[in-house]
Amino acid sequence: MEIITAVRGFKDIIPPETDKWRHIEETAYRVFGAFGFREIRVPLLEKTELFCRGIGETTDIVEKEMYTFFDRGEESLTLRPEATASVIRAYLEHTIHAAETVTRLFTIGPMFRRERPQKGRYRQFHQIDAEILGPDDPRTDAELILMLIHFLDKLGLAKLNLEINSLGCAKCRPAFREAIVSFLGGRVEELCGDCQRRLGTNPLRVFDCKVDKCGEIISRAPRLMDFICQDCRDHFEKVQGCLSLFEVPYRLNAKMVRGLDYYTRTTFEVTTEFLGAQNAVVGGGRYDHLVRDLGGPDIPGIGFAIGFERLASLIPDRDQDVSRGPLLFIAALGEKAGERAFMLCNRLRMKGIHVEMDYAGRSLKSQMKRADRLKCAYALILGEREIEENSALLRNMHESAQEEVCLDDLEEIIKKLAR
Ligand code: HAM
Q1: Ligand 1 pocket: which of 111, 112, 126, 210 to mutate (most atoms <8 Å of CB)?
Q2: Of 104, 127, 167, 289, which is best to mutate to test ligand 1, by the most ligand atoms within 8 angstroms of its C-beta?
Q3: Buried-exposed string 356-384: b where 16+ CB fall within 10 A, e elsewhere
Q4: What is the CATH class of 328-418?
Q5: For 28-76, how does the pLDDT look when each residue is reduced to its tens digit (9 = 90+)?
Q6: CA nearest neighbour of 130 among 151, 155, 159, 153
Q7: Same CATH fold, 328-418 and 17-172+228-319?
Q8: Domain ranges for the chain
Q9: pLDDT tens-digit profile of 184-231?
Q10: Which residues, judged by CB distance below 6 Å to any ligand atom, belong to the binding site of ligand 1?
Q11: Please, what CATH class does the domain formed by 17-172+228-319 belong to?
């Protein structure tokens, strides 16, 4: 019979890759915790309307990439394509905003987008998502970016590129939109079909187009930066000033519009040449109207999401083996020794010590081979004779030295070795 394989674009994460993932998660918990972030866990499934309203009806995500279905014909539901909308839904539903003026939340988990699978792009992928709700002070933007860079640095990824831009606000965006529409209006014939449509629905999205011809036209288009109002300009300058205080290197990228509609003012991406076409590891920005657009009060926000798979692929393999082998392998010979080994093995495990043994009754040689393969630090050799003498041989696998130990003292000896 043929085996059943995973769905295209859905990937298993298996050991030792999971060790690397845990290392990344633990680093995130530590770093984010010091910056005042607390964890939130939200469902994978939401009402479709949340993403239509949050991300924008005319974005690629909502138009083409969502896993949407009718739940037994009753209600349209969607597997979350991102976390921001869900975090804000929960923030409003639990009136977290009433209890505090600044809320810092993060969440780690799977997201779903029906994109064409390729290296670095999956249909189920994971994000580390962080959001700050409440303040619109530019120091908040800088603090969030600083935390992100510090986190990447802690993972040994200091050489990534940070690109920042400002997308202006509701006051300055209409003038830019007009300028874009009139610039592109004169070149409609040259644009791809999608962009011709976008021109009428959401002209900013033309900046996202991956078609070469459209990219070339856009490279000559007016720049949003030339249209932003004085308030937005001051805000952006302060963000940059704060980043410079911490000597965070960045590059201005006036062409970056991000693929979701909710952004205002500061936006940013972390990219790298090492990922080929899928070069964005992190995307984020300010969204000062999203909370209101989702039915809440006028509360500004800013956040980012790190692509977990892309991040993990940048961490060198030699760092992968963050977990060590078991402390002890118990090689038992004969039935009585096997019984004693079974007791000992599981008693030590319950004390939090990683111990392995073999139930197959193999030869001493093959049991020792297994201890070696598992990279055990010690092996305990327990035979019938040893049981009778209430003793065992404890072998240091790295130094190939061994000593006889009394079985009554064994738990204490092993516990000492585990310290
Ligand atoms: P995004 O740019 O759509 O932003 O996604 C963030 C990151 O998720 C990307 O930079 C990439 O690393 C990863 N990613 C996206 N799609 C895929 C995929 N198909 N396969 C693998 N990785 C992928 C957001 O999602 C916003 N919610 C970020 C945000 C939070 N903005 C404010 N707060």
Answers
A1: 111
A2: 127
A3: bbbeeeeeeeebbebbeeeebbbbbbbbe
A4: alpha beta
A5: 999 999 999 999 999 999 999 999 999 999 899 999 999 999 998 889 9
A6: 151
A7: no
A8: 17-172+228-319, 328-418
A9: 888 888 999 888 888 888 888 888 888 888 888 988 899 888 899 999
A10: 82-84, 113, 115, 121-122, 125, 127, 129, 131, 259-260, 280-285, 303-305, 307, 309-310
A11: alpha beta
